[in-house]
Structures are given as structure tokens and as C-alpha cells.
Amino acid sequence: MKIAILPGDGIGPEIIAQAVKVLNVLGEQFELESAPVGGAGYAAHGHPLPEGTLALAKAADAVLFGAVGDYQYDTLERALRPEQAILGLRKNLGLFANLRPAILYPQLANASTLKPEVVSGLDILIIRELTGDIYFGQPRGVRECPDGAFKGQREGYDTMRYAEGEIRRIAHVAFQAAQKRDKRLTSVDKANVLETFQFWRDIVTDVHKEYPDVALEHMYVDNAAMQLVRAPKKFDVLVTGNMFGDILSDQASMLTGSIGMLPSASLDANNKGLYEPSHGSAPDIAGKGIANPLATILSAAMMLRYSLNRAEQADRIENAVKHVLSQGLRTADIYEAGTTKVGTEQMGDAVVKAL
Amino acid sequence: MKIAILPGDGIGPEIIAQAVKVLNVLGEQFELESAPVGGAGYAAHGHPLPEGTLALAKAADAVLFGAVGDYQYDTLERALRPEQAILGLRKNLGLFANLRPAILYPQLANASTLKPEVVSGLDILIIRELTGDIYFGQPRGVRECPDGAFKGQREGYDTMRYAEGEIRRIAHVAFQAAQKRDKRLTSVDKANVLETFQFWRDIVTDVHKEYPDVALEHMYVDNAAMQLVRAPKKFDVLVTGNMFGDILSDQASMLTGSIGMLPSASLDANNKGLYEPSHGSAPDIAGKGIANPLATILSAAMMLRYSLNRAEQADRIENAVKHVLSQGLRTADIYEAGTTKVGTEQMGDAVVKAL
Ligand SMILES: CC(C)[C@H](C(=O)O)[C@@H](O)C(=O)O
Ligand SMILES: CC(C)[C@H](C(=O)O)[C@@H](O)C(=O)O
């Protein structure tokens, strides 16, 4: 089993180092190979997704990704900016299914800005389509406005689109995920305004026929953003498009108050995947040794579960993380009075020890 | 001064009746004329926005709108569904600037699902562009997918677009609103992915030159959705496009826990406007006399301020609302132990009395 390790920028290398430490003590024969990505890719090879990095990611059985982005790359032209590496990896590897759990660990119930009774025990799964929608639709650009009151002016434009097969395959992923949980799926769309999402609703409704044991509900995206604030625990699994999923999955993760704890998986049709923490590269705290490595370690656990067929190893890591939380160990982002503040390495070491 | 009164469906007629009562005791010479809209428009004339209703709205100096939508219209084809009336009014009246305050009244601090320290004193203003973006962009529809892996299948598609002048005029509204408040504007976009919103960012940055006294910050929409959960009080004014604004303004209003209190204004280039509560038609409680009329009454206050040049009357109404809250009167949606539960009419009467 070959794992591509792409640390990236900011806190990426520090947190990835802890996940690698964890992988190395499992007693498995993994081949780990690293390559630069994002700003580090640009610095090394003039491109955020260097050819060698993409080739490695393609050849590997799974990709463990840190985070990308740092101040010095902010002024580059868009095609060279770090986040293009993420978009390029998703598209080139066909990683169409993004799984974003939003879980509030009981030990961290106070971390949320929401009242404990609203979020304690929160455990929802957001499934975001990741290779379609307005993210990649053509045509797009800046052109002369062809009609209407602003005819002749410049206008920016993009194309939102979803083909039937694209919707079907993400719907299957979502219904199957719901089957393994509480059997309730909320499909989020904007069918009252968008043709793309009326079509989305029609296709999801059709796929539902194959999953009669799952209760399907349709919800408009504006309402979903409200319900995530009002009563987030009412959800089980949510599925939506790339753009709405970008917004809602970040909103949902912030409900927990501990985004430093949340992993993510982005899967292709054969369960090959890219695994990364839900948080960003946090350049402001990079190199200080204080970043929380748990989201990355839990991403490695997801990798073991989904791509490497090592469910028990995944369980072991997840239990080890719960154990260190119960021991009261906290990085700065989740620290509260009465717990023990530790740095990135100490946290990684504690998980290794708990294993 | 002529005011078009469009009660609509569900609780619309009940809450509008209270706002009309309030308008009638101000001692002003307003001419009020009603017409059916939404489901009621369809029931009366076969269309959610009947010709006569649109003509009235066009002829009036301002429009006071209740809410639209009810179960029996859910199965109509999209073009005849109640919400098409809203889209039609916005487009036909050129109501491009939607002002959505999210205010947490101190008396209702407990209503929020967020911790008091996170939201008490919340007072943000979301300005949403309302006649452009993917809501109205052409082409759109369902077609044969022209290229890529799904070529030949059916696909749904829509066009996102913003012309320079469209961005400029909403940016001016936003900068001017910020000047009257804390002089901080957050422009929300997705410039890292969308051409439309890279263009948006460029134009907003350019308009900023005319408002050097306002601090401008650009923020990605996914981050904005997170910051609204993490630290909503850090915002002053937010401005964004139609689609992102739909999501974020609803999310923000739910932060207060009292969406029954929140008014909205939708303005054209000459400050003619449509005023409506931020909440919906709530068909489940329609006719029960328990709906909260305060958002509609406060919408009437916004109407007096923005379209009818009666700032003092607006102040009077807003103070009257604060007064009844201080008296402890609450409709069911904002009721808590120790306060006095009242119905829709009683609440309207209390505001009238406070005036
Ligand atoms: C960096 C950006 C392109 C990306 C996205 O919008 O998908 C990020 O926000 C994410 O959610 O992974
Ligand atoms: C009903 C719908 C078309 C409308 C919108 O999306 O604009 C509503 O959600 C709103 O925000 O007023």
C-alpha cells in the first residue's frame, strides 16, 4: 500500500508529521512518499501542483494532505495560487465525493459558540459533490455583457451545471452512507430558483427508489443554513452540490467550535481518496508548534477505513484520540481551564502512546 | 403617498393587518390599496403575480408585502408557484438592493441558540444584491450535456453573471450604509473559484476609492458562513451577491433566534421599495392568531424611513416595539417563562397603544 504524503504550507508540515508518526506505529507495511504541494509546490517547481506531485498522487493508493496557502503566495495570479492544487487534485483524481463529518466530542462540548443543549452530541455527515457544479463549469470568464440593461459593459460569468450521472453517483454515496447511520438523508438544493437544482432534486428523488429504507427530505439551501443554526442535531446525513456544500460544510464544522478536530475524505468511484483536515493552513501560527494535529490524525483514520480497508486500525486511532481527550490533553485551540495545554508534538506523542 | 398592500398567503394577511393598523394611527395621509399575490394571486387570477397586482406595485410609492406560499400550491409547475411573485416583483420593479438587518433585541437575548456572550447586542446589516446573479442569468435549463465524461446525458444548467454597473450600484449602497454605521464593510465573494466573483472583488475594490473613510475587507463565502457562527458581532455591514446573500442573510437572521422580529427592505435606484418580514408564510400556524406581527410592523417602519421620508415616524414605531418588548409581551415564537404570551392582534394593539 502506497500513501502519498502532501504536507503543503503553513501548519501543514507540522500536523502531517504527527499523522505520519501515528501511521508508523500501527505495525503495517505502508510505503509513504512525500511531495510538495500548494505554495511549497510553487516554491520548488513553479506550480502549486507540480507534475511529480500529481503523478505520485495518481500512483498512490491514498493521499494524505495537510493544508495549503501562505501570505507570500496571495499576490500570485489565480492559476498559480496554492488552492489551485486542491482543485487540480480533485479534478484529476476524480474525487467527486467529499465526506465531512461534523462531530462534537463530549469532552469539548464547551468549545462551541452554540448552547450545549443545541449541539452536545452533534454527529452529522455532510456529503458534498466535489468535481462538478459552478466550480468547473464552462464557459466562464469576463466578457462583454451581451444583453439587458448593462449591455456592452464588462461582466464576469460562470456556468453552473450538473449532469444526470454526476448527480446519480453522489446520491448513491449519500444514500449508502445514510444506510450505515440513522437512515435519514436531507438533499439540499435551490430547486425554486435554479434549473440545475430542480434537475438535481428530480434525480435524487429517482435514486431514492433504490433505497426505500432511507427517509429522504428535500430542503432549500437558505433553509438548511437556518436549520443548521436552529437545530443542527435534527440532521443525519446531508447531500448537496459543490458550491452549497462548500458553504454548509464549513458552517457545520464551525458549529462544533473545534474545527481543529474535524477530518475529511474526498473519494473517487473506487474509494481511492484524498484525506485532509477540515481546517486551513493557519499561517499565523505556523512553526510555533501549537497547531492541533488531531484533525489530520483522524483524517489518517478515515483513510485507513475508506481507502486502505483497515477498519480496525481506524477504530484504534479514533479511540486513541478519544483517550487523550479524556486525559484532558488540549492544544491551544481547544484549551479551557482545568485541562492540560500541550503542543503539536506532545499531542501526537500522546496519541502514539495511547495506541 | 400611495402604499400597495400585498398580504399574500399563510400568516401574511394576519400580520399585514397589524402593520396596517399601525400605519393608520400615525396621523399621516397614506392611501393604502391591497391586491392578491402569491398563492392568493393564483387563486384569484390564475397567476402568482397578477397583472393588476404588478400595476399597483408599480404605481405605488412603496409596497408592503406579507409572505407567500402554502401547501396547496406546492405541486403547481414552477412558473405558477407563489415564490415566483417575489422574483417577478424584484425584477419588474428593479429592486436590486436588499437590506436585511440582523439585530438581537436585548430583551430577547435568550431566544438565540448561540451563547449570550456571542450574540448579545448583535447588530449587523446584510446587503444582498437582488436582481442579478444566477437567479436571473441566461441561458439556463435542461439540455444534452455538450462535453466531458457525461456527454450526451441530460444536464441542468444555469448562468451566474454580474455586470460592472450592477456591482457598482450595490457597492455604492453598501459603502453608504457603512458610512452611517461603524464604517466597516465586508464584501463576501468566492474570488478564488468564480470568475464572476473575482470580477466582483475587483469592482468593489475600485468603488472603495470613493469611500476612503470606510474600512473594506474581502472574505470568501465559506469563511463568512463560519465567522457568522464563530464571532458574528465582529461584522458591521456585509455586502454580497444574490445567491450567497440568500444563504448568509437567512443564516444571520437565525443567529438572533427571533426571526419573527426581523424586517427587510428591497430598494430600487430611487429608494422606492418593497418591505417584508424576513420570515416566511408559516402555513402551519396560519389562521390561529398566534403569528408574530413585529417583523411586519418593523418593515413598515423601514418603509417610512427609506421610501416615504418619514424618519421620525419610523423611530416612533421602532420605539413602540421596544416598549412592548420591555413590557414583557411576547408572541409564542419568542415566549419564555416570566413573560406574557399574547396573540397576533393583541401584539398589534399593544404597539398601537404604545404609539
Ligand atoms: C480553497 C477552495 C478552492 C476550497 C473550495 O472552495 O472547495 C476550500 O474552500 C475547500 O472547501 O476545500
Ligand atoms: C422564495 C425564494 C425565491 C426567495 C429567494 O431565494 O430569494 C427567498 O428565499 C428569499 O430570500 O426571499
What can be said about this structure in brief?
2 copies of one chain form a homodimer. Chain A is of the alpha/beta class and 355 residues long.
| Tally of strands of chain A | 14
Which structural class fits the helix and strand makeup of chain A? alpha/beta
* CATH architecture designation of the largest domain in chain A: 3-Layer(aba) Sandwich
Shape of chain A: globular
Low-confidence stretches of chain A: none
Based on CA atoms alone, the radius of gyration of chain A comes out at 20 Å
Instruction: Give the oligomeric state.
Output: homodimer
CATH class of the largest domain in chain A: Alpha Beta
| Percent of residues in beta strands of chain A | 15-25%
The sequence of SSEs of chain A as H and E is EHEHHEHEHEEEHEHEHEHEEHHEEH
Note the total helix count of chain A: 12
Question: How far apart are the termini of chain A?
Answer: 21 Å
Give me the side-by-side strand order of the main sheet of chain A.
Answer: 2-1-3-12-11-4-5-10-8-9
Helix content of chain A: 25-40%
Largest sheet of chain A: 10 strands, mixed
